[in-house]
Amino acid sequence: MEKVLRKSGVRIIGDIPWGTHISLFYHNPGDLINVLVPYFRSGLASNELCQWIVSGTLTVGDAAAALRRSVPDMDRYLESGQMSIAPHSEWYLKGKIFDPGEVARRWRDLLEKARAGGYDGLRVTGDTAWLQPEDWADFMGYERELGEISGHLLAICTYSLERCRPGEVIDVVSRHQFSLVKRDGKWDCIERQKYNLMEHTLKKRVKELRCLYDIASISGEAYLTLGERFTEIVELLPRAMQHPEIAFARITLNGENFNTGNYRKTDYRASADIIVNGAKAGEVEVGYIKAPPLTENGQFSKEEGLLLDAVAERLGAIAEHRQAEEALRESEEKFSKAFRSTPAIVAISTLENGQFLELNDGFLRFSGYTREEVIGHTVSDLNLWLSPEERQRTLDILKKREKVRNKEFEFRIKSGEIRTVLSSIERINFAGKECLIFVSTDITESKRAEEEVRESENKYRSLFEGMLNGFAYCKILVDENNNPVDFTYLEVNDAFERLTGLKREDVVGKKVTEAIPGIKESHGELFDIYGKVALTGEPTAFELYFQPLAIWLTISVYSPAKGYFVALFDNITERKQAEQQVKDERDKTQRYLDIAGVIFVAIDTAGNVTLINPKGCQVLGYREDEIIGRSWFDNFLPERLRKQVKAVSRKLLAGEAEAAEYYVNPVLTRSGEERLIAWHNRLLRDEDGNVTGHLSSGEDITEQKQSEELLQSISSSSPVGLYIVQDDRLQYTNPQFQKITGYSQVELLGREMLSLVALEDSDVVRSSTMFTLQEDNPYPCEYRILNKTGQIKWVMQTVSPIHYQGREAILGNIMDITERKYLERKVIEYEELSKMKSDLLATVSHELRTPLATIKGYSTMILDYYARIGAEETREYLKSIDGSTDRLAKLVDNLLDTSRLEAGLLKLQRAPTHIDALIGKAAEEAGVRATQHHITVELDKGLPRVNIDAKRIRQVLDNLIDNAVKYSPPQTEVLISARRSGRELLVSVTDQGPGIPAEELTNVFDRMYRIEQRLSSGADGMGLGLYICQRLVETHGGRIWAESTVGQGSTIWFTLPVMENAGKAKRPTVRMR
Fold first, then answer.
1. What gap in Å lies between CA 265 and CA 236, rounded to an integer?
2. pLDDT, tens only, 16-61
3. Bridge-partner residues for 631, per DSSP?
4. CB distance 893 to 863 below 8 Å
5. How far apart are CA 36 and CA 162, in angstroms?
6. I need a surface site. Which of 174, 179, 486, 1040 has the fewest CB within 10 A?
7. Domains of the chain and any CATH numbers
């Protein structure tokens, strides 16, 4: 059979058959992307399931980004699962260890999944960067098992050339049909046939190659000394000879000999010089202990001679390398000591990604990190650069030129502190990589010192400029007698300009008599004051109304040096005006106190009266001078309350208690009468905030209290619930209100009235209350409340506005009308039931009469004329009797179902059901009954199961189909359809009848409702069919409705809930007649 070829996507390979396994040797991530992206692009285009297993070389994100750049709609492939990318830890090391058999089984399962999912096959790749040397043998066994997987599978196994030893490369090539390797920038392909030819040739030289390979391996073991290496190497040489059983060897280097155990002097020997740094340093010698068979070239073959020369050259290289290592080690030790001990901050990182390769102790001290926390991590990992943009700009500069000198940067160290360094950065080659070396000095402290000096200068400058006080630095001018006659402005600040309205440029450098003409005449005393301060050094301060500028000033003057003075001043015009305003306000307040209709009394911290107004004097019956200075508590309170009220006052003044906004207590008048006063209290404080006493305003409520007590007595015995509301909260309730709501007085006070009202009625109550208050006309409102036990009660309420405790409030009363509402509802229910029974009896008597008349008529004819009528005629009569009996049975069933539904006695027998089978059976039987109509079924593919009572849903279907047949002309179609819509199954029955008028659509499911035009058409029925259908569907948790266009037909829709995790029925879309 001809093999089916697939597009590999790899140009050098071309099309390949299923089962092809390819190995790819790469140097860098770019090699992987160069081959694997087109490889997967071809697989996706060829309807293959694709799986990419990445390792350390590429991340999942790198692979996805590479695919997105090359493959359109890659996100769609990833979302659908046709393309998957996973790390090696989730595939090769899923159980934390490598299990070859388990991994191979996973590939087989994925291949089966691909075929079952409709894909042509499976295309995969896996990277081996994770592979450890000890796992190599197991992995090669896994590769062999992967190659034996038959079926539609293509695989590329990727290997890093840097991690593969020569023998491992041979193992890989031998297990794959194709091997890809890049040579001189171009991809080369090694086919297994070519490899076999090469292997045959190589086997001839295997001993020589193995010897050289083992020598190379020994030379690469850094922990061995030179002598240990030569001791191991000399043992390898005899095994590489044509006759190893009689061969020996010897290595001499700088006078030191390394022999095999059987070394001896014979005539059958050959040697080659070991050259170290251009001079002979020794030789390598091989020989036989007895004469070997001769070759074309004598005792030793040409290849043995070439091997001996190669070994000698390799030994010389080993010796040279060892000497170079020792010299380098000494140099590195010197450099390392200097590098580590330098006080500068030094670090070496890669140019490509900023990975730290080396750093000194200065860097560790500066950054706060340990060496382990930095080496191997990148600059980005540690978030060192305060500005990533600055780092990128620096890198861009370094890529254009080799170095950056003495530039300041800001770094974030481990503690989170930001420090400033002065750095020089240079590109170097380190450890075979292009790197950057940073040499930096921490200049944070010096920068801070500079900043502090700058801030200090700015601070004093800003203080000078930002002073609220005006500042003027002046030089005094004197006459020949040393008497002050003028002064010159040397410096002024911004406040000087703001407070005086004078500009700096108009005064600085000028005499005051020039800047402010007329000052000498209006304020000649200023020259004497300023002159005395400037000449004697004695400071002074004073207030002055400055007439030239019409402002009040407070001025402080001192002398920083003889002959100079500084004037600090502030414009206190507003303060002076405020003081006058306060005086005016005080006078006005006193007038208010004198005419106020409430008591005002101020008490100091000792309890003595410091202020009382005329109203207070009137209530107490004393003159003002008889009250001021006397103890309030000892003279003007009843003796029984003095101790208590005095203690409260002490706590209030000490800050141990809050000032009560409203407090009631009696006072004692001169006549000995007690008057009840409602007090409002406020603390009095001085300018420093210290409490100096308290001020109280009081209203005489003696008569009001007596009225309230009378009202309380009436309210307590009222059969109506009374309440008072202020700010929407209850302030008073009577016992009847508490009884209706079930709450105590404590529970009710402060509670929002609307919180007791049923949520549905809250808007009605709010609107009714607002209407009553606005119209000043009581408006009864009936609503429901929830009492404390959760019971609903009906109440009737009226409200009216009142004043309560000196503020506006609402007085409401409620009456419990629950019993009345219950009786009203029962009357309505009885009337409805009576009407329903009358309608039912009228309908039933009509519907039952027709079939009973048919049965009676035909039965009588058969009985009376049995002997005369023939068998065929008798059969027709019996068929009519049978049909009428069926009709009677259906009417009785509908009546029984209606009764059960109304009483809640209908029990559903639910079970998971395939709706398509149920619909199919109903349509099939309907076709038998309705031979004049075309019964058609349309079902979507894969309908889910529903948990239903199949008998009852079949009853719904039969009723809807029979209705459609009954009300549509012969030879028309009745269509039954079903499809899934979200979490519901949607079923419909459509006819081509006359349709239902729009105004009747909402009534068709009402009990005993019959459409007017169908009544006139003579169609029978009691109007219970659609009502029963609605109740059955709703009992199942579904919905039912009707849609219709007059003249075109009607559709009845109903829904059923889909079962959770419902399996889809494996059935195709059906349309049957």
1. 19
2. 999 899 999 999 999 999 999 999 999 999 999 999 999 988 999 9
3. 608
4. no
5. 19
6. 174
7. 5-203 (3.40.50.300), 205-326 (3.30.450.40), 342-449 (3.30.450.20), 467-571 (3.30.450.20), 596-700 (3.30.450.20), 705-816 (3.30.450.20), 907-1072 (3.30.565.10)
pLDDT > 80? residue 135: yes
Alpha helices in 984-1024 (DSSP H): 1012-1017
State how far the alpha carbon of 457 is from the alpha carbons of 32, 445, 451, 566, in Å. Answer: 62, 18, 10, 20
When pLDDT is cut at 50, 70 and 90, the band that residue 1069 belongs to is: very low
Beta-strand runs (E) in 214-307:
247-253, 256-259, 269-276, 279-288
pLDDT digits (tens, 9 = 90+) for 95-114: 788 888 888 899 999 999 99
Q: What is the pLDDT of residues 461-470, one digit of tens each?
A: 655 565 678 8
**158 in Cβ contact with 128 (< 8 Å):** yes
Torsion angle of alpha carbons 321, 324, 330, 333, nearest 10°?
-70
Nearest to 411 by CA among 447, 433, 382: 382
The most confident of 386-400, 515-529, 888-902, 972-986, by mean pLDDT: 972-986
Whole-number Å distance between alpha carbons of 677 and 598: 10
Burial class (CB in 10 A: 0-12, 13-18, 19+), 137: exposed
623 CB neighbour count, 10 Å cutoff? 9
Question: Please, what sign has the CA dihedral across residues 908, 909, 912, 914?
Answer: negative
Q: What is the mean pLDDT of residues 278-291?
A: 89
Tell me the C-alpha distance between 881 and 886, whole Å: 9
The Cα diameter of the chain in Å comes to 171
Chain mean position to CA 771: 48
Q: Which two tokens stand for residue 317?
A: 């290289």
Residue 878 to residue 858: CA distance in whole angstroms: 7
For 426-518, where are the alpha helices, taking DSSP H only? 444-466, 494-500, 504-507, 512-515
Confidence label for 258 from pLDDT (cuts 50, 70 and 90): very high
Q: CA-CA distance, 23 to 27, in Å (whole number)?
A: 14
Q: Could you give the angle at the alpha carbon of 759 between the alpha carbons of 757 and 761, nearest 5°? A: 70
SS3 helix, strand, coil % of the chain, rounded to 5? 45, 30, 25
- The candidate with the shortest Cα–Cα distance to 676, out of 648, 649, 647, 638, is 638
The DSSP string of 909-968 is: --EEE-HHHHHHHHHHHHHHH-TTSEEEEEE-TTPBPEEE-HHHHHHHHHHHHHHHHHTS
Distance in angstroms (rounded) separating the CA atoms of residues 27 and 32:
9
Nearby residues of 150 by Cβ (< 8 Å), 6 or more positions away: 19
- Pick from 923, 925, 888: nearest CA to 1020: 888
Tokens standing for residue 982: 């979200």
Return d(Cα 890, Cα 898) in angstroms, integer: 12
CA distances from 1024 to 831, 842, 991 (A): 21, 14, 19
Task: Report the alpha-carbon distance of residue 644 to residue 40 in Å, rounded.
Answer: 94
Rounded-to-integer distance, Cα 835 and Cα 840, Å:
8
Strands 83-87 and 48-54: parallel
**CA 1000/CA 262 separation, integer angstroms:** 119
Q: Tell whether pTM > 0.85.
A: no
DSSP single-letter state for residue 295? B
Residue 64 above 50 pLDDT?
A: yes
First and final C-alpha spacing in the chain = 47
* Closest to 668 (Cα-Cα) out of 629, 704, 703, 634: 634
pLDDT, tens digit, 9 for 90 and up, residues 563-614: 999 999 888 888 888 777 777 777 676 676 677 678 989 999 888 999 998 9
Read off the DSSP letter of residue 246.
Answer: G
Report, as an integer, the average pLDDT of 252-259.
Answer: 90
Q: Residue 212 has which token pair?
A: 């050289």
pLDDT greater than 90 at residue 757: yes
Q: How far apart are CA 621 and CA 886, in angstroms?
A: 105
Do residues 619 and 701 make contact, with C-beta atoms less than 8 angstroms apart? no
